Amino acid sequence: MKNLSIRTRILTGVVAVNLIGAIVVMVYLHQSYVSQIDATVAETVQGGAAAWEQIKGPDATVDPLGQPDEVARVMSAMSEVTGATYGFMVEKAAIDAEEYAAAREALGQPSNWDEGEDYALLTTTNGDLADDMQFSLAPDSVPEAGKTIGVENGACSKMCHSSLGEGGDYWGVRWSDDSHSRSHGVFPVYGASNDPLGVIYSIEDISVHADAARSTMVRTLIVIGVTLFVATLLIGWMVDAWVFRRLARTVASIQDLSIRVAGGDFDAHFKPDGTADEIGSFEQFFANLMDLMSSTLKSLVQKEKKVG
Question: Global pTM?
Answer without folding.
Answer: 0.69
